[in-house]
Design goal:
Length: 407
């Protein structure tokens, strides 16, 4: 039983491909308010491979570049570096050079730990969150580990309280030298005791904690940062904005909503906008003067992957197998495609949109019009994927890097 099956059995949310494609125009069910175009401000754009250019993308084949002994639960990219987690391990890799370092994630001797969608880096330190395997022990608290980005040296580990209320690592981010980590449980919403802790990113010393006395009684669905503030998205009562230095509540966005897919947070900051999926569709919430605001509630199925946002697209997928490429500025559907089975993971590049299902299916579409460019069976095994330069990285049981070659 793999990680996603374990957590699904525990009560945490957790096919081949078809070439069905439908181009859509302005009548897409989207509503928007227009502002001037926003450029990226140093955040990840999701456009990582096949340097963006003009013209139509061509069909591609994949050639294996390298493999590693670890599998992927979740994967992140930062400034071209690749980070991913596996059972009891944190790993850094380079797209063309293989594994750079790997280190264990044991905590106080417990060695059965599942990688979570909880990661933050500032380019110097990287923090990963792990959930103790509930089939082995369902009362231990989740724990977070920090590593030196350059050497992979493990710097510290921090454990949340035991007792079953904080056994899920719900998110992590690093702001101004402070690692902010969050925990919850797999219980119902009314049973939640959300906990957010601020730690010195270098030493791991606890600086503050914000708990149920300040936060709503709800699940934590998202943790991230924007403009030197920490944003904590809850399953109800909107977003709680915290001061990273003190943990004090500075603002509440009650109208904001974000959900989690199969363990993963379905939200992303891009420039001055937060893009989020909820059970009604996909929405854009403005944060700054150039932020966008729109809603598209005409999606087929519940969101299961994304949104992956870059300078022009916001791409999301659903449990009905639908893939939607929305205009980042307006929320209008540029094109729609479908696969057999639930959309599991999405990555965008300068020329293509890559989509994986929850089994072994991988496909690529032309990002401009949705033309099907690639379809193959690869060992995704329900895990995350990413694309950096001309390499696709995937593999739930063993990581595989494939070079993208135009036909």
């Amino acid at each position: 039983m793999d990680r996603r099956q374990v957590l699904a059995t525990f009560g945490v949310g957790i096919g081949g491909l078809s070439g069905c494609l439908r181009l859509t125009g302005a009548d897409s069910g989207a509503t928007s308010t227009g502002e001037a175009d926003a450029s990226t401000d140093g955040q990840s754009t999701g456009t990582n491979d096949e340097r963006a250019g003009s013209g139509t993308a061509s069909a591609v084949t994949l050639a294996e570049n390298w493999t590693g002994d670890w599998g992927i639960d979740f994967v992140w990219t930062d400034a071209g570096d690749i980070y991913f987690n596996d059972y009891n391990a944190a790993i850094k890799a380079q797209h063309g050079g293989g594994i750079e370092w790997a280190n264990e994630a044991t905590y106080e001797g417990f060695e059965d730990n599942l990688g979570d969608d909880a990661f933050g880096t500032d380019g110097e330190y990287a923090t990963f969150g792990f959930t103790p395997d509930p089939e082995v022990n369902d009362t231990l608290g989740s724990h977070f580990h920090a590593y030196d980005v350059g050497s992979g040296e493990k710097l510290w580990a921090f454990g949340m309280p035991a007792g079953g209320k904080h056994n899920l690592a719900e998110g992590a981010t690093i702001v101004d030298g402070i690692a902010v980590v969050a925990a919850g449980s797999s219980g119902s919403e009314r049973e939640q005791e959300p906990l957010v802790v601020g730690l010195d990113a270098e030493s791991g010393d606890a600086l503050w904690q914000t708990d149920k006395s300040t936060l709503p009684t709800a699940s934590i669905n998202y943790v991230g940062n924007h403009d030197e503030s920490v944003y904590v998205g809850m399953s109800s009562d909107g977003f709680q904005v915290l001061d990273p230095e003190t943990g004090e509540l500075t603002e509440v966005h009650e109208s904001w909503s974000v959900t989690r897919g199969p363990e993963a947070a379905l939200g992303q900051f891009h420039s001055d906008t937060f893009f989020a999926a909820d059970w009604d569709g996909l929405r854009a919430y403005p944060v700054g003067d150039t932020g966008r605001e729109w809603a598209n509630t005409e999606l087929d199925g519940d969101p299961s992957a994304g949104p992956v946002v870059d300078n022009s697209l916001a791409v999301t997928g659903t449990d009905a197998g639908s893939v939607y490429a929305l205009d980042r500025s307006t929320g209008e559907v540029r094109w729609e495609a479908s696969i057999d089975g639930t959309v599991g993971s999405i990555a965008t590049s300068g020329l293509r949109v890559w989509v994986a299902d929850r089994a072994t299916g991988l496909t690529a579409y032309d990002r401009t019009d949705g033309t099907l460019l690639h379809r193959s069976t690869k060992p995704v095994n329900g895990a995350d994927i990413t694309v950096v330069d001309n390499v696709v990285l995937l593999g739930g049981d063993q990581v595989h890097a494939y070079t993208i070659r135009e036909e």
